[in-house]
Specification:
The complex is a heterodimer of chains A (659) and B (306).
Chain A: H1 2-15, E1 23-30, E2 37-43, E3 49-54, E4 62-63, E5 69-73, E6 102-108, E7 116-123, E8 126-127, E9 136-138, E10 149-154, H2 162-175, E11 182-185, H3 196-204, H4 208-211, E12 216-218, H5 236-240, E13 260-264, E14 267-271, H6 284-295, E15 300-304, H7 321-336, E16 341-344, E17 350-353, E18 355-356, E19 370-372, E20 384-386, E21 397-401, E22 417-421, E23 425-432, E24 435-442, E25 447-455, E26 471-473, E27 484-485, E28 490-492, E29 499-504, E30 525-528, E31 531-533, E32 540-541, E33 550-559, H8 562-566, E34 569-577, E35 579-584, E36 587-592, E37 594-596, E38 603-605, E39 614-617, E40 628-637, E41 646-655
Parallel strand pairs in A: 10-11, 11-12, 14-15, 15-16, 16-21, 20-25, 22-26, 31-32
Antiparallel strand pairs in A: 1-2, 2-6, 3-4, 3-7, 5-6, 7-8, 7-9, 10-23, 13-14, 17-21, 17-22, 18-19, 23-24, 24-25, 27-39, 28-41, 29-30, 29-33, 31-41, 33-40, 34-39, 34-41, 35-36, 35-40, 37-38
Chain B: H1 3-12, H2 23-36, H3 40-57, H4 59-76, H5 81-89, H6 95-106, H7 110-126, H8 130-143, H9 149-161, H10 165-176, H11 182-194, H12 198-211, H13 216-225, H14 228-245, H15 253-266, H16 269-282, H17 286-305
Helix pairs in contact in B: 1-3, 1-5, 2-3, 3-4, 4-5, 5-6, 5-7, 6-7, 7-8, 8-9, 9-10, 9-11, 10-11, 11-12, 12-13, 13-14, 13-15, 14-15, 15-16, 15-17, 16-17
The chains are: A mainly beta (659), B mainly alpha (306).
């Protein structure tokens, strides 16, 4: 970690080397082809842009002609609704960038295919990028050439938070010294609205070391769609990327950066816009898709877009229009064109299907559409077998990679999935010879799923009757809360050791909604806190030992002056042994010692002794308080039914500056 | 981009949640907010947002709810361009004209004007007033600074519908300079064939056919440039290739459409109609299906004569 921080400091220092200009978006590479490469960066004032390249890091002998560096400036006479850019072809760029931002897009031409080049950017004579071998790119191999490839696939990552960073670190740990040939992002890379500022912070800053030498081929998510328009290719998303629209990198011309294709050796990639374009099979995007599929002669075919045709994660593909239409209208075209794998996001989960074909009906069913219900793992049930080349309707693997950094969720297990994993991570796709391998890599760099498509000969299309159910792995880990010492000065919302309602006994669990204000506890017992046994610190002694492990408690309290309360720092003071989950007005606010679940489904307990009151800050939950009646509910858990003691003694309090 | 897709995207853009949740969750949240909000303008926005989320869920129940929310939103704030456009674009009766007229009056940017004119064009098309549809499509194109391909394709269809086949070729030839899409090139080729100028594009068709992995659409275009037995040879080859790709239980609509055209060239009228009807069952786009239905007729007659 320290090394990373030092590297970042060094990099940012060097990138700010110019006396006048600051690099506001570090160099990143875009639109790679067999013979060209685009390098993009931004500064906050004018520079004399010079780009040098060479095959050795010490010999950057070739100068990119000034005419090949497009300079996009923000129009300072900006009028709402009109273009921000001054020059001719730049009206589609930087609609939200700060006025002083200048974007440079250097197109390096005349390169050799499949060749490694190093680059450096200068402001006149002054070098902006450090003398660092990581500033490099490798041109694409010749279209159709059978080369090994490795692509990283990420979705729904753009929070700028620690989980996003961990996923990227996990990938790098997994990767080691191996190189990436490309990076596919399946959308939602800049929460919450895909603004220019959010792109800088949540995407470019986060992935800077990767983006300087790996092209990110992007598809637009709904969050980018808040500020970008697919039909016009306008907005910060389109400002950020230089994407093919004239078949620069292979495929046929789409005329739009919203959907496009490119080739990398013998793999053909298709990016679609599932968000804000007409998804009808007769509309422009589908017509282009058909034309593109007719032309490609690749050995492998990969499609990627944001909205998943199959998911039961944080979204339901049987209920939402965009997801249903991608399944019913677009998937038939992709599958009759021989697609091998489809990567999507949107749903915050990892879901990987069996080998399927023709699964277009709503709601989804697994009848008559599963070609192989195995796990696709050569060491398990065996690889998925497909015919050589791109055989129509020969089976597709669907991968929802919406687990790139934001909060994970699962509604149920989709019937077409082989593996469902509720962990943060990303996907690594590798092709070699006649095999395509997909691996789910978690945030610790560990492989959590593997499936392989193996091609050869002619594989008949056989439908599996009664396919297997999906295998579910992992569980969303609740946020672990850390306590602090009790503050020196505090003002209790209600006094310690006052009366609570409680429910305790073998097999006793409250009805749904027990944590909400309106819940009726008239048949619960009353007792003074704390609750427990054996350690002589309890006002209400329970008969828990060897009988039950959980106790439910509730206490109503009044807030008379909400405005005054909102200026205070609310906290929970609690002595507990072994774990607890607390709720205010029906919403979970803090837990400790219980990793998963609630009530009867709780598990993952940790031993903890109740020695003194610990303080858990609840500032961010202040919004839950209401004027008048409120309720705090706490479930206390013992790690073991035979445990020697149990304690639960809590009160709410405001931390104050003075006594 | 179709109007409805635009509206969905536009309105979703104002429902900015930190990380997008299931529309059902968002509807719950909005319902809660609506119950608590008293400010009229804010309330109008919330109704508009909820209507879009309801629409995202699809189905007639949700569509009805979506329209009720739109109407409530407009009652609270009649000065909302997006809401009028949404209402007009999702109503098939003549009141749509009133809604779209109000949207047009409220339109400020060129993009808004283009969207409103496009919606009017689509309304008139639905009402089978093709001339009026063409006039408004021209206005939409005049306001469109971004050379939206879907607008260009719609205009092309209207010219075909009006039997202005030479004008269509001229229009598409000019459009080629503005948009590099392969779809536009293919439409330009089709326009030549429709105008009886297949010889102009014959070499391009042959080259594309030779370059393609799947050749059926180019075989059909080749057939349409030919007469007599040569046309039937191409069409038969197309049928053979399409059948090798077509999953008849769960078909690709674009292949069904090609198959219908190929059978029409072969003079197998019942099959042509059968596959056209299958395509119509699966695709919701009226004008593309209308064009297919119309196009298999003259080919059928021509083949009969041959």
């Amino acid at each position: 970690m320290l090394k990373t921080i030092l590297t970042s400091i060094l990099t940012s220092t060097l990138l700010s080397a110019s006396i006048y200009a600051e690099v506001t978006r570090a160099p990143y590479i875009q639109l790679a082809t067999e013979s060209s490469q685009v390098i993009v960066w931004r500064t906050n004032s004018e520079i004399k842009p010079i780009v040098r390249i060479g095959k050795s890091v010490d010999k950057l002998e070739t100068l990119v002609p000034a005419d090949d560096i497009l300079i996009r400036r923000v129009d300072k006479k900006y009028v709402p609704g009109k273009s921000l850019w001054e020059s001719a072809d730049v009206k589609k760029r930087n609609r939200q960038a700060p006025e002083d931002r200048i974007q440079f897009e250097a197109t390096v031409k005349g390169l050799e295919p499949g060749t490694l080049y190093y680059y450096a950017i200068y402001d006149g004579d002054q070098r902006i990028t450090p003398s660092d071998a990581s500033y490099h790119f490798q041109t694409h191999p010749k279209v159709g050439e059978k080369v090994d490839t490795r692509f990283w696939i990420v979705g729904d990552s753009g929070t700028g938070g620690k989980d996003q960073a961990r996923v990227a670190q996990g990938m790098r740990k997994y990767l080691g010294n191996q190189k990436l040939d490309g990076y596919l992002h399946v959308g939602d890379m800049a929460y919450g609205s895909g603004t220019d500022k959010e792109f800088s912070k949540n995407f470019f800053a986060m992935y800077e070391p990767i983006l300087r030498n790996t092209v990110c081929w992007a598809s637009m998510g709904n969050h980018e769609g808040y500020t970008a328009d697919g039909s016009k290719s306008l907005g910060p998303y389109y400002d950020a990327y230089v994407l093919p629209k004239k078949a620069e990198a292979g495929g046929v011309a789409s005329g739009s950066e919203a959907y496009y294709s490119f080739d990398y050796g013998n793999v053909h990639f298709i990016c679609l816009n599932s968000h804000d374009l007409d998804r009808s099979p007769t509309a422009a995007m589908a017509q282009w898709l058909k034309a593109d599929l007719e032309k490609t002669k690749a050995d492998f075919l990969v499609a990627f877009f944001h909205h998943p045709p199959y998911t039961k994660g944080s979204h339901d593909s049987d209920k939402e229009k965009q997801l249903i239409e991608m399944r019913e209208m677009i998937m038939p075209i992709l599958e009759s064109g021989g697609v091998d794998v489809v990567y999507t996001g949107h749903s915050h989960i990892y879901e990987r299907s069996m080998l399927i074909d023709g699964a277009y009906v709503t709601p989804s069913t697994n009848e008559g559409v599963v070609l192989d219900d195995g796990d696709g793992d050569p060491a398990g049930d065996g690889s998925y077998k497909k015919s050589e080349g791109l055989a129509p309707n020969n089976g597709t693997v669907q991968i929802v990679a919406g687990h790139g950094g934001t909060r994970l969720r699962k509604k149920s297990n989709h019937v077409l999935m082989s593996k469902v994993i509720l962990m943060h991570g990303s996907v690594m796709m590798e092709t070699s010879g006649n095999k395509m391998t997909m691996k789910m890599i978690d945030a610790d760099g560990k492989q959590q799923d593997l499936c392989v498509i193996e091609k050869g000969g002619k594989v008949a299309r056989n439908i599996v009757k009664n396919p297997r159910a999906p295998k579910f792995m992992g569980e969303e880990k609740p946020i672990s809360h850390k306590s602090a010492k009790m503050p020196k000065h505090h003002q209790p919302v209600f006094a310690p050791h006052t009366e609570w309602s409680y429910l305790a006994g073998r097999g006793l669990h409250p009805a749904k909604g027990w944590t909400k204000i309106a819940f009726d506890t008239s048949n619960w017992k009353k007792g003074k806190a704390g609750f427990g046994y054996s350690d002589k610190d309890d006002n209400t002694v329970l008969d828990m030992k060897d009988k039950y492990t959980v106790v439910y408690t509730r206490k109503e309290f009044q807030i008379d002056d909400l405005d005054e309360a909102k200026n205070e720092k609310l906290g929970l003071a609690i002595k507990y042994d072994d774990g607890f989950i607390a709720y205010i007005n029906g919403v979970e606010v803090v837990r400790s010692g219980v990793d998963f679940g609630r009530g009867v489904t709780a598990k993952g307990f940790h031993n903890h002794e109740a020695r003194a009151y610990e303080f858990f800050t609840l500032n961010k939950h202040m919004y839950l308080l209401k004027k008048g009646k409120n309720v705090i509910s706490i479930e206390g858990h013992n790690a073991d039914i035979g445990s020697s003691d149990f304690s639960l003694d809590a009160f709410l309090t405001f931390k104050t500056e003075k006594k | 981009m179709k109007l409805k897709s635009y509206l969905l995207a536009l309105c979703l853009s104002s429902t900015c949640l930190h990380a997008h949740e299931d529309p059902s969750d968002v509807i719950d949240t909005l319902t809660h907010k609506i119950a608590k909000t008293t400010d009229t303008k804010e309330l109008a926005k919330l109704y508009l947002k909820r209507s879009i989320e309801l629409r995202a869920l699809g189905g007639s129940d949700h569509s009805g709810g979506a329209m009720r929310d739109i109407e409530e939103s407009l009652r609270l704030n009649p000065e909302n361009f997006d809401a009028w456009l949404y209402k007009g674009g999702n109503t098939s009766d003549p009141s749509a004209l009133d809604s779209l007229g109000k949207a047009l009056k409220l339109a400020k940017s060129a993009q808004q004007k283009s969207k409103a004119e496009q919606a009017l064009s689509e309304y008139y098309y639905g009402a089978k007033k093709i001339g009026q549809a063409d006039i408004h499509c021209d206005k939409a194109i005049a306001h469109d600074t971004e050379n939206d391909l879907s607008l260009i394709l719609f205009k092309s269809h209207l010219l075909w519908k009006l039997d202005k086949l030479d004008d269509r070729v001229t229009f598409l030839t000019k459009a080629l300079g503005k948009n590099a899409s392969a779809v536009l090139i293919n439409t330009w080729i089709d326009a030549h064939i429709d105008a009886g100028k297949g010889s102009v594009v014959r070499k391009i068709i042959t080259k594309e056919m030779n370059d393609s992995r799947f050749k059926s659409s180019w075989l059909i275009r080749s057939a349409l440039c030919e007469k007599g037995p040569a046309a039937k040879v191409y069409a038969q080859q197309a049928v053979t290739e399409i059948k090798s790709r077509l999953n008849l239980d769960r078909p690709d609509v674009t292949l069904l459409m090609d198959l219908a055209r190929a059978y029409a060239i072969l003079g197998e009228h019942e099959k042509a109609e059968f596959y056209t009807n299958r395509a119509k069952q699966l695709a919701h786009d009226k004008w593309a299906m209308n064009e297919l239905e119309e196009k298999i007729k003259p080919v059928k007659e021509k083949t009969d004569k041959d």
